[in-house]
């Protein structure tokens, strides 16, 4: 039943995404701009990590893509709430977990697709990374998307207007991005900033993907990254499902 | 036989300006196969009651059973037994009528083939046949309403909740909808629980009326009995009867506010 319901919801929203292929491409535009106009500045700079500047930058851009994209996933459901679509589905016997999971798996598919486009563009610009590492990177993008999209849906189900939703999400994502060293390794900064950034869950994900991109898979970074990503996803899906079960507003 | 019964059903919302007691203890007994008109001024608690009875909103007090299923203990049973059409409907304007009907069938766990058949059946019953491949955005108000109801009838529920089903419809479409509701009762024995602000509609369509005001039941009975008791005679208008019960106008969307 859960599988049936999840596949059904996933199919409905995947078809919706495919109808708007333009938006699908548009999503990669921002990271592509970073790649084009920011990437070349880094070549040759001593970034402190192993590997070249592309192996440092691309993992950051991938997670940035997921961070900003997935955090705003809830926007759609505010509209659907107003149209009565959410309640119409909630009065059917469909599994509450499937209502969330079908949606966030669509999100994960979309962002992994965008991540593939981004990596292809990066390869054209000079990125060289081992295939298993690149695949691990996509896995992290998928997990992070599931986690953030679930939280985003949970928040969106609680707020009344998009005007309330947008600023709240912005207030959470921008510091997360800055503190997680998505653009430049945090080790470049003063110690206090480095310590602060370790408190950010995303920091561990970036470190893990950067390791994977230079071909080291059995490292503490990868382990912590995986634990944080899985833990975050489980927690977020639990919270999100609760909201679909009890949604009062 | 009683198909919906509630005892002290209540819901308090928490809001920034303190608690809002939307429904303050409603006792109801709805008979199987009747059309119940649920009336009350704006904000009386009608939609909130419907949302509780359809499992969308957890009550903060009281109990209820719908078609033999306890609301708290067996919400899944309630969901299988009832259909609900919200005040705002619930279809995606970008999707075709057929796709929405098929998805709805699949949400009620029909197989793909059965859901496709059911969509055709519903389209025939609700006069939507020529419209199956149109996007929902391209439907008129009346067609849209029929689609909303078709969606709610997908699993042939014994109880149908309709929240202001005729608001915004022209007189012809309203009459069609009344026919449809009567047909559901007469041919399928469906219990219909509907809210409306149109008192002529309540008078013509409902077997029994329940008037709620400020979250409690203010009066109930057949339209005739209410007119006799509150309007003074069987010839009293339901409008005057309603005013006598609630002390204010029903504030229909298309009428000027009534001075008390
Ligand atoms: N989610 C909510 N949070 C806070 N208050 C709410 C919420 N939903 C409804 N209310 C309040 O509860 C009261 C009853 O609302 P409800 O929608 O049930 O009224 P109604 O009888 O359906 O009115 P109408 O005829 O206008 O549709 C109103 O005062 C409303 O503002
Ligand atoms: Mg209402």
Automatic annotation (TrEMBL), chain A:
Tell me yes or no: is Cell membrane among this UniProt entry's keywords: yes
Membrane topology, record value: Multi-pass membrane protein
Query: Main location per UniProt?
Result: membrane
| Gene Ontology cellular-component annotations | ATP-binding cassette (ABC) transporter complex
Superkingdom of the source species: Bacteria
All copies of domain ABC transmembrane type-2, residue ranges: 22-247
| PANTHER family, A to Z | NODULATION PROTEIN J (PTHR43229)
- Give the family, as the similarity comment puts it: Belongs to the ABC-2 integral membrane protein family.
Put simply, this protein is called Transport permease protein
From which source organism is this entry? Answer: Streptomyces griseomycini
UniProtKB/TrEMBL annotation, chain B:
Q: Which UniProt keywords apply?
A: Antibiotic resistance, ATP-binding, Nucleotide-binding, Transport
The membrane topology term of the UniProt record is: Peripheral membrane protein
Q: Which Pfam families match?
A: ABC_tran (PF00005)
Q: Where is the ABC transporter domain?
A: 4-239
SMART domains xref list: AAA
- Principal subcellular localization: membrane
Picking any one GO molecular function of the record gives:
ATP hydrolysis activity
User: Where can this protein be found?
Assistant: Cell membrane
Q: Has UniProt tagged this entry with the keyword Transport? A: yes
- A single GO BP annotation from the record? response to antibiotic
Matching Gene3D superfamilies, A to Z? P-loop containing nucleotide triphosphate hydrolases
Can you list the GO cellular component terms from the UniProt entry? plasma membrane
Q: Where are the transmembrane segments?
A: none
Recorded protein name is ABC-2 type transport system ATP-binding protein
């Amino acid at each position: 039943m859960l599988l049936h319901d999840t596949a059904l919801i996933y199919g409905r929203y995947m078809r919706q995404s495919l109808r708007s292929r333009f938006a699908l491409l548009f999503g990669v535009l921002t990271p592509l701009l970073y790649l084009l106009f920011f990437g070349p500045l880094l070549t040759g700079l001593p970034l402190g990590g192993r590997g070249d500047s592309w192996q440092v930058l691309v993992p950051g851009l991938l997670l940035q893509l997921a961070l900003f994209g997935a955090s705003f996933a809830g926007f759609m459901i505010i509209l659907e709430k107003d149209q009565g679509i959410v309640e119409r589905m909630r009065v059917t016997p469909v599994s509450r977990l499937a209502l969330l999971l079908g949606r966030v798996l669509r999100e994960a598919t979309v962002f992994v697709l965008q991540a593939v486009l981004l990596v292809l563009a990066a390869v054209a610009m000079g990125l060289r990374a081992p295939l298993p590492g690149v695949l691990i990177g996509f896995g992290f993008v998928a997990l992070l998307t599931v986690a953030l999209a679930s939280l985003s849906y949970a928040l969106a189900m609680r707020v009344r207007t998009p005007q309330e939703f947008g600023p709240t999400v912005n207030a959470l994502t921008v510091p997360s991005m800055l503190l997680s060293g998505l653009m430049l390794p945090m080790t470049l900064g003063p110690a206090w900033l480095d310590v602060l950034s370790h408190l950010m869950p995303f920091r561990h994900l970036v470190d893990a993907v950067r390791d994977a991109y230079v071909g080291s898979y059995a490292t503490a970074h990868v382990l912590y990254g995986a634990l944080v990503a899985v833990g975050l996803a489980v927690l977020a899906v639990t919270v999100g499902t609760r909201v679909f079960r009890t949604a009062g507003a | 036989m009683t198909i919906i019964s509630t005892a002290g059903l209540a819901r308090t919302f928490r809001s920034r300006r303190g608690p809002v007691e939307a429904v303050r203890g409603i006792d109801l007994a709805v008979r199987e196969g009747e059309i119940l008109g649920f009336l009350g001024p704006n904000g009386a608690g009608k939609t909130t009651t419907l949302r509780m009875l359809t499992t969308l909103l957890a009550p903060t007090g009281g109990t209820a059973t719908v078609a033999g299923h306890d609301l708290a203990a067996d919400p899944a049973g309630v969901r299988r037994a009832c259909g609900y059409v919200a005040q705002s409907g619930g279809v995606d304007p970008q999707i075709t009528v057929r796709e929405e009907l098929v998805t709805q069938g699949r949400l009620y766990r029909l197989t793909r083939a059965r859901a496709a058949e059911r969509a055709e059946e519903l389209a025939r019953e609700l006069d939507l046949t020529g419209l199956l491949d149109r996007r929902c955005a391209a439907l008129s108000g009346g067609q849209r309403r029929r689609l909303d109801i078709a969606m709610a009838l997908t699993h042939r529920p014994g109880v149908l909740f309709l929240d202001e089903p005729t608001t915004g419809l022209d007189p012809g479409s309203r009459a069609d909808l009344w026919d449809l509701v009567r047909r559901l009762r007469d041919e399928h024995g469906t219990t219909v629980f509907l809210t409306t602000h149109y008192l002529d509609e309540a008078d013509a369509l409902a077997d029994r009326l329940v008037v709620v005001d400020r979250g409690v039941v203010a009066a109930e009975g057949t339209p005739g009995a209410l007119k006799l008791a509150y309007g003074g005679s069987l010839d009293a208008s339901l409008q005057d009867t309603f005013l006598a019960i609630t002390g204010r106008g029903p504030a229909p969307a298309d009428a000027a506010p009534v001075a008390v």
